[in-house]
Structure formats: C-alpha cells, structure tokens
Automatic annotation (TrEMBL):
EC class: lyase
Domain of life, per lineage: Eukaryota
Protein's name according to its UniProt entry: nitrile hydratase
Listed SMART domains: Glyco_18
Alphabetized PANTHER family for the sequence: CHITINASE, CHITINASE 12-RELATED
GO process terms (BP): carbohydrate metabolic process
Biased composition (Basic and acidic residues): 230-254
Catalytic reactions of this protein: an aliphatic primary amide = an aliphatic nitrile + H2O
Organism annotation: Symbiodinium natans
GH18 domain boundaries: 459-667
Region (Disordered): 1-22, 212-254
Keyword field: Lyase, Metal-binding
Keyword set includes Lyase: yes
Keyword Membrane: no
C-alpha cells in the first residue's frame, strides 16, 4: 500500500467518499488579510528572503490537526512565519511582540493550599506546536498548590532560539490520582500525584470545583464534558494524542467538514497572519508602499479571475496557427500576446491541453493548490478544498457530475495533477455559432472553470429527461437589499447571462441534443430587449418569454400592457422567438400579494368574463386576467406572429387543480369549462387555426373533419 507523504498528500491518503460533496462552486472576494498574506509572500520571494517551495514544505510540516483545520491562507502565514525564523529574517522575540506576547507574569499569584486548574493545551498553541513542559494527562484537572519553587526562564521561549525574555513562577501542584483521566482509580483511592507547573499554565479554581471533581468518576466526566470543563476535568477529544508526531496513514473522515468550514469562512484574520505582516513591516523587511502595490496586483486578479486566460483561449479559437503554437509551447505563445505565463513566484512551465470529443481534461493539485495563477487569477475555494484534491484524481467523473458535467462512457477522462513546476490550462471547445465573433466577444463567453476542465451543465436535464432549460431573468438591474444597479453592473450581469446561455448551447451540442431547448423569461421594458440583442442571446435561446405582468397596482397585467410588450419586442427581437406571458394569478391592489386564479374562482364565482378585478374585503381590489382577456392576448400574440404564449403558471388554473394539487383539491374546481383560462387559450388557438384554414381555401367538409378543436 502506498505510504502518504503527510496530511497534505490527499491523492494517496484513503479517499474522501463521494458522499462528501464539493463546497460552493462559485467565487468569493478574498478577505483583505488573505490578499495581504498573498502579496507578502510574493514580495518575500521576489526579495530573495525565501523560495515558494519553503512555503509548501512549511505547510506539509504542520501538525495534522492544524493542517486539516487551518484556513488556506492561515496555513500560508504559519509556514512563512517559520521560514522567517529559520532564515533569521525575524527573531522569536520580534514575532512574539507582534503577536501581542502573552503576559508572562513574574509575580507569584498562588500560594500553598490554593486550588488551581491546569489549562488546556490549546491556550498556548497560537501558531505553532509549542514546547510543552506540562504533561497532557493533567490538562483541565484541578489540584492544590503545594509550594512555590521559584522563578525560572521561560522554557517555551528557550526552546525556540535559545533565548528567554521573561521569567515565570514555578509551583509544585498536588492532584488526586483518582481524578486524573484514564488513571485506574480502583485501587488508588487516597493516592496522589505531584507535578511541577509554570504559572502561565494555571488558572484559579475553588474548593467546590475540586470537590465536584472528586465525586465524579473520570469516565463519567469524560462523557459529560466533551467540550467544557466546569469541574476542571478535560475530556479526551482525539484518539491520537499519543502519536501526533508520526505521519498518519489514514484520514479522520469526519474532519473534512471541519476543514471545509474553515476554508469557506476565511474572513476573520488569524493572529499569526496579522503578526507576520506587522513584524515584517516594523523591521523594514518589506515596505508599506510596496505591500500596497502588491495587494493591488492581487486585487486585480481577484476581481477579474480568468481575464488573461480568456484572452489566450479566444486567440486560440480565432487563430489556428496560434492554437498550434499554444499546444506545443504555451509559454512562448503567450509571450506573443505580451503575457508572462510563468507564476510570479516560480519559473513554471505552462502546458495546455485541448478538450476533444474523445478526451476530457481536468486539472487538480493533490498536494496543495498549484494553479496557473497569472492566467486564471486566485484559485477558487473548491479547487483548494480537501474534497476536490482527494476526489478529482480518484473519481473524476463523479466530481465532474457535481459541476453538471457529464462525460460519456466512451470519452476518456485525463486528470492532470499539477504538483511540481508545470501549470496546466484546458483549452475548451469553441461553441458553434460563434464563427463570426470577434476575439473580444469570444472572451465574454469563456469561463474560468472551463479552463480548469470542470464546468459543464446538463446532468439534471439528462437525469429527469427534461425538454431543456429555462432561465428566469426576472430582476435585471436590481438587487434586493441594494436597489438599482449601475450601468456597469447591469452590463456585467448580461455578460454573465450570455456566458451561461452559450455554455448551455455548447453542452447541448457536445451531447448531441438537437431537440433540447433553451428559453429565457425577461421583463419587457424596451431596454432589456436591446441588451438581449447586444449580448447575442437570440443566437442561442429558442424562446424569449416576455413577462408581461406584475406591472404594479391591482391591474398588473392589462391587455394594453401585453400588446405594448409585443409591439416593442418585435421591433428589436425576432417575433417568432418571443412569447407573450400571461398570468394565471391575480394581485391585491393595496398589499401587492398574489392569489391564484383557482382561488378567485372558488371565492368569487360567478366571475364576469369581461371584468378583470374583484373586490377583496379590507384589501381593495384584486386584479387578474379573466377568460376574455386571456383569449384576446392569445389572439394578439398570433396576430403579430409571436412564437406563442407563456403561462405563469399552468397549475393555477382551476381546471388543473385536481391534477396539480392532488389531495388538496377543493370541493369545487372549475364550476364549468367556460371558467378555465387554459381552455380560453385553446379556443383562441382553435379559432386562429380555423381562420387560417379558411384563408387557405379549405372546404366546409374539410373544416368539419379537422379535429382543430383539440390542442
């Protein structure tokens, strides 16, 4: 069986099960301290104070539990701090001062007979494994001061650098042997143990705590107090306390969740990260201005991840000769575009792999997070996660499915583990229908994840045999809690929408789905039609649904509003791709709350087919579309040759309630067929069909034989 190199060797360690799903697939803007640590590392490497390999080695040497639970950039800070001490760029005292050194009180605070509690080991583990002179079996246990021995140099300071800058009191503390966890108390009822302990490890306790400890068996205490120590008794939390020094050949599977939570929540700045940067600035190892400039560079990559890579891919799509050079010598090809493909901290070699029908490429780094930083910007959290690093090399198809990327059985998956000085980039397939596009426009549909090999849609479509995808573009230019967006933000939203739609069409083509559709519902106000056209949506979307409702007030979807939407839409977009949205629900004029058409039928029947509002006690009126309005809207959509009507939503019609709602069926549904909005649409379609047949010269006998009264 292969021996793992350490807790970082996730490709060798027993796999994290496929039940451990990947973290959030999106991006987040990194916290300021994370960007600060990243910039600091780049500066230290550039100045020759360390090599990037030392950062990796320092992380690999972290305690397994620290490695598993520390956040990504916290591990960087821990590693760099150790490297700075090794190279004597910083001293232990300088780093300790920046940490805000723990107060080493030289004054004797305890006297013979005082009850004290021994602190838990975690109180001193601020950033590295400490040199502990307090044995673990008494951590959290209460005892009694026997004597003050004197003041001594701090051994935990002496252990790192051979210098102590403080002295601390040392005591002999007496403990009941029967109260010490894991000690057999069966034959040791009155026996005691003494341990010499420094003052920094002791906290005041009282006689009640000591007495409570004596009354409880250690096993009971361990079971009752897994997290806290009200009776000064520490519960064992890790079965591997006695062998933390060796490299584990197994993984605590339950900890992946803990680690990922730490990665996902990288917001609070760890003390070591703050102290490292502060100490380097104070000593002048790095300057404030150059750090600011470094952070700006990191910020640029954080805000626009993948921008440089998109330039490279777009040129390869547009220029076959460049593509050939890119696949044979990527560093040289990138230099033609003025792009330095090597990472800023190491002379890396860029290698590009082209996606092909018979071969799908996926990038991972099982040892850390090696990544084409200059082309793709800061790596996403999921790429750095323990789950992805472990599973991508072992079960790539399962991982890809979580991104919606289904790989056919006859397509080979090739995983590229970037663990040394190569950085890999995937050249995605160019979508059909973009042959006439400029490189600038092509860049807008290229995603960062597609250049890693992860992104593709479609697993849900295939799983449930759906007819396609509908995108609800309901509130463009608006964010709840923020209000209306700037024009720049709106444009960015449309670029993202365009990328999504084109990626969907590309996925359809790759799977050979010729009958699957893409539809998009949008708010018709004239401006949205212009933006949809500008960003090429009609080129890949089959139907554009005009949401001609929620106009405001009680009459939220009048016939005039529907006609206006159709008229302005057909001036900008292809009529056959447009549908008129019709609501099967009403809105209260005062509160804006909605209610289903079926509910209106139950409460207000009979409804006048020519009236589109009813009185609602204490709520003003409820505006809705009755059977006549729905019929007229459908007729107008056919008259101006739209693609049809879009119903929101069909289950709200009284005719379908028994089918849609099952056991919640009301005693009455549609009191008669004439109340059904769905049948109103059907009658309009039938009338239009018959009119066209008459126009085409059909005889009365032909008309009577046609089953045009059925949808």
């Amino acid at each position: 069986m292969p021996v793992p190199l350490g807790p970082h060797d996730l490709g060798t360690l027993p796999a994290i099960g496929s039940s451990s799903s990947l973290p959030e697939k999106g991006d987040r803007i990194h916290a300021f301290w994370e960007r600060q640590v990243h910039a600091t590392v780049m500066l230290l490497v550039a100045k020759g104070h360390m090599k990037i390999d030392e950062v990796r080695r320092g992380q690999e040497y972290l305690e397994p539990q620290v490695y598993q639970t520390a956040s990504y950039y916290e591990k960087w800070a821990l590693s760099v701090a150790n490297a700075m001490l090794e190279h004597q760029v910083l001293s232990n005292q300088e780093l300790s001062a920046a940490l805000g050194p723990e107060t080493e009180d030289e004054v004797q605070r305890f006297f013979p007979g005082d009850v004290v509690r021994v602190r838990d080991a975690s109180h001193t583990t601020r950033w590295r494994r400490p040199h502990l002179r307090t044995p673990g079996f008494i951590h959290g246990v209460c005892g009694t001061i026997e004597r003050h021995v004197g003041n001594f140099e701090n051994p935990e300071q002496l252990a790192f650098g051979g210098k102590s800058w403080s002295t601390i009191p040392l005591y002999i503390v007496r403990f009941d042997a029967s109260s010490i966890q894991d000690f057999d108390s069966g034959e040791r009822g009155m026996d005691q143990v003494t341990v010499d302990i420094y003052q920094s490890w002791l906290a005041p306790a009282d006689a009640a705590a000591l007495e409570g400890q004596r009354k409880k068996r250690p096993a009971d205490l361990a079971a009752e107090q897994p997290q806290s120590h009200p009776d000064c008794k520490r519960a064992r939390t890790d079965e591997h306390t006695a062998h933390q020094d060796h490299v584990h050949d197994h993984v605590h599977e339950e900890r992946h969740t803990v680690e990922q939570r730490a990665v996902d929540a990288e917001a609070a700045c760890p003390a070591i990260a703050r102290a490292l940067v502060s100490a380097l600035l104070t000593k002048g190892v790095i300057g404030a201005e150059e750090l600011r400039a470094g952070i700006e560079k990191v910020d640029a990559g954080d805000r626009n991840r993948g921008a440089v890579g998109r330039r490279v891919v777009a040129r390869a799509w547009a220029d076959e000769k460049f593509k050939s050079r890119l696949l044979s010598d990527a560093n040289s090809a990138c230099s033609e575009l003025g792009i330095t493909a090597t990472n800023p901290t190491a002379p890396t070699k860029l290698v590009v792999f082209e996606q092909k029908p018979q071969e799908h490429h996926l990038i991972v780094c099982t040892l850390c997070s090696c990544y084409p930083l200059t082309l793709l910007g800061l790596s996403p959290d999921w790429y750095k996660s323990r789950e992805y690093r472990s599973r991508a090399v072992r079960e790539p198809r399962a991982v890809l499915k979580e991104f919606g990327t289904h790989i056919p059985a006859d397509t080979q998956v090739v995983v590229h583990d970037s663990t040394a000085d190569c950085r890999f980039l995937v050249l995605p397939n160019r979508p059909k229908g973009t042959e006439a596009w400029s490189e600038e426009k092509l860049q807008e549909i290229i995603t960062r994840d597609s250049m890693i090999g992860a992104l593709e849609l479609g697993n849900l479509i295939e799983k449930y045999d759906l007819d396609g995808v509908d995108y609800n573009w309901e509130y463009p230019g608006y964010r709840f809690g923020q209000g209306y967006l700037s024009d720049t933000e709106v444009q960015a939203d449309y670029r993202g929408l365009s990328k999504l739609a084109f990626a969907t069409r590309e996925m359809y083509a790759k799977r050979g789905w010729t009958s699957k559709v893409i539809t998009l519902a949008y708010y018709p106000d004239g401006r949205q039609e212009q933006l949809l056209k500008e960003y090429g949506l009609p080129e890949v979307v089959d139907l554009l649904h005009m949401m001609s409702y929620d106009q405001g007030g009680g009459h939220h979807s009048s016939l005039d509003y529907g006609k206006k939407s159709a008229d302005q839409g057909t001036q900008i977009l292809p009529a056959r791709q447009l549908t008129m949205g019709v609501p099967f629900y009403g809105r209260h004029s005062r509160s804006g709350e909605w209610t289903t058409y079926e509910d209106l039928v139950q409460k207000h029947w009979p409804l006048n087919p020519n009236v589109d509002s009813v009185d609602a006690p204490d709520q003003g009126t409820i505006g809705f579309n009755g059977v006549d309005t729905i019929r007229h809207k459908t007729g107008y959509a056919l008259q101006v040759e739209l693609g049809g009507v879009m119903i929101w939503e069909v289950g709200q019609d009284c005719r379908l309630v028994p089918v849609v709602h099952g056991s919640t069926t009301h005693a009455r549904t549609c009191p008669e067929d004439s109340a059904s909005l769905l049948l109103s649409i059907s009658s309009a379609l039938t009338a239009a069909k018959r009119q066209r047949m008459r126009t085409a010269g059909w005889s009365p006998s032909q008309l009577s034989s046609d089953r045009g009264d059925e949808l």
